[in-house]
Amino acid sequence: MKYMKAGLLSKKADINIETLRYYESIGLLPKPKRLDSGYRIYSETDLKQLLFIKQAKILGFSLKEIKELLYLKVDKERNCTDVRQIAEKKISEIDFKLKEMKKIKKALTKLAEKCRNKNDEECPILNEIENIE
Questions:
Q1: Looking at the structure, do residues 58 and 1 belong to the same domain, yes or no?
Q2: What is the predicted pLDDT for the residue at 74?
Q3: Average model confidence (pLDDT) for the chain?
Q4: Are 130 and 122 in contact, with CB atoms under 8 Å apart?
Q5: Is there a single domain that holds both residue 52 and residue 1?
Q6: Which of 13, 16, 57, 85 is close enough to 50 for a disulfide, judged by CB 3.0 to 4.6 Å?
Q7: DSSP per-residue string spanning 19-67
Q8: What's the pTM?
């Protein structure tokens, strides 16, 4: 089995070495083997796990959720329903955030309209933000 040092692993996964160390410290990645010189060494399996973590983050999963997904990935007792439930929960969270973002967009659009073609010293947007309770 071919091994790589932390620098090469982080380069292949396109992540920072500090991120790699952090993932190890919180248990997302197993503690690496070490050479006699003390260098940490990683396998292709470690790279695949790191890429899984990265892709799960892109999909919006938190590190806690990713840890659960990684557990389910190796759990022989799990079934697809377990994973689907996590995905459906994430979809619900995204739907909620989208609704909130639409509200924010609507409010900002109204504020921006108040500011059209005005060269007043008083800025309606800043005044409105200041007066929000």
A1: yes
A2: 86
A3: 90
A4: no
A5: yes
A6: 13
A7: HHHHHHHTTSSPPPEE-TTS-EEE-HHHHHHHHHHHHHHHTT--HHHHH
A8: 0.78
